[in-house]
Specification:
This protein is an alpha+beta fold. The protein is 54% helix and 14% strand.
Amino acid sequence: MNEQDRPSVGFERHRDHLRAIAFRMLGSASEADDAVQEAWLRLARVDIADLENLGAWLRTVVSRVCLDMLRARRSRREDLVGQWLPADGGATSQVSDPEQEAVLIDSVGRALLVVLDRLGPAERIAFVLHDMFAVPFDEIASIMERSSVATKKLASRARHRVRGATDLDAAELSRQRQTIDRFLAASRAGDLDAILGVLAPDVVRHADRVALGPGRAATIRGARNVADEIVVFGANARFADVALVSGAPGILVAPRATLRLVVTFTTERDQIVEYELIAHPTRLRQLELAVLED
């Protein structure tokens, strides 16, 4: 066995690719590292000379490990139905490097990761492998131990959910998107004048109780009152992304790509006339979320 045939050398050639796949499947840097580490441990138990295509073998192992992890995660969440979900939505991973995870989230897209998290495990695996990494359906079918036809249907359903649907025409969708982009940019910057510029004078902010800290009113009226609140409490805007929320542009706030808050809007003439902060777990689960493409 020459230098290039050593398991460690072969594995390192594929590590970044495997981690990229696992992160998109799991939405967690630490869990992705766990999946990649498990692939390495399994590789150490086989003779690399017996593998026709090391990259495909490792991709299969990582995908199956991720599928098992997603199923276990979903089972934990189902066990919590009717109870108050923990802040991580039932996941148990710990972030070892928050800055690195933030870079990964930004590279994939915060809204996309939130939407992917709503797919079933099999749908998510099929979508990630085919639509994000161009893996042929025959290979995905082998990984998932399903027929190619069944695998194509999984990816198609996932694609439909990721893209979502809207009754808005293209011009109105674009107009609303631009207004909310302005709102989010001003909130991130803490720019009071810019915030006031995107709010209607008689704007109303509603919120469910879970979204509010002690002493904050469920409803606030007037641009200045609303803008002052945004300047004070708008730090979470750095964890926000624009998405399609029940068919219209809205905002998701998702630290560590875990959905914590959704903001829905009513706009008129390029200004926000009303918006609502939604954070109750039951209400969040009832919202239809999709990626809002540029």
